[in-house]
Design goal:
With 246 residues, the protein is α/β, with parallel strands linked by helices. It has a single domain (8-173, 205-228), classed as NAD(P)-binding Rossmann-like Domain (Rossmann fold, 3-Layer(aba) Sandwich). It is built from seven helices and seven strands, in the order E-H-E-E-H-E-H-E-H-E-H-H-H-E. It has helices spanning 17-28, 51-65, 88-113, 137-157, 175-181, 187-195, 205-216, and strands spanning 8-12, 32-37, 44-45, 70-73, 119-124, 162-169, 227-230. The chain has a seven-stranded parallel sheet with strand order 3-2-1-4-5-6-7, with helices on both faces. The protein is globular.
Length: 246
Amino acid sequence: MADLSGRVALVTGAGSGIGKACAERLRSDGATVVTLDISGEVDHEIDVRSESEIEALVASILSAHGQLDIVVNAAGVAGGGPVHMVPLEEWDRVMSINLTGTFLVCKHAVAAMLQHKRGSVINIASVEGIEGTEGGSAYNASKAGVILLTKTMAIDYGIHGIRANAICPGGIDTPMLRQFIDAPGLEKYRDTMLDAHMLGRFGQPEEIAAVAAFLASDDASFVTGHALVADGGMTAGLRAGLFENF
């Protein structure tokens, strides 16, 4: 377990899935955690696309706690399709939440961190931001943007004691994943996606939360600008079934 005693953390998308697990893990490791989402059991019901509300929330955290040490950007939505079939409104929805929302939280959180010359920003991206997937268009583009945003932040703020890293999960058993793999007619998609994970299973939100806790801790004090893949071997390469019987 990481020792995050005395740290103050902000976690977005904390109403369910990875965000909820991250909030619970950081809290169990000793951090004071402030949570937000558009719904669920969170401290603040805020849409990450609302800059005024994000700015006000960060100000309130500083007023109440005097510092902001950790940010986990887990708010996100799925969406996409073949490019010629994606309405502009759908493209804008996915990009505005996944990428612009992450940017806005980072913008105001980093401004707070600069006051104390320390901090850890952890952005939840995806393996789909590293390599393409069929029909991934908007989602993949948004997560690729999150990765490059994170790397750029590491360059800009490292000299000020602020680290920025991304986590790139594979298939994680969350409500977002379940809406696809449990849908009628998508059994082949589910089985193909599951088979792509070399560990033979989907991950659990708590496993991504453990990675976030590491990146937030002093154990990761020399880690910045990294897109850490936690995907059960999904991006390791091709498994052809030659050696499954030993």
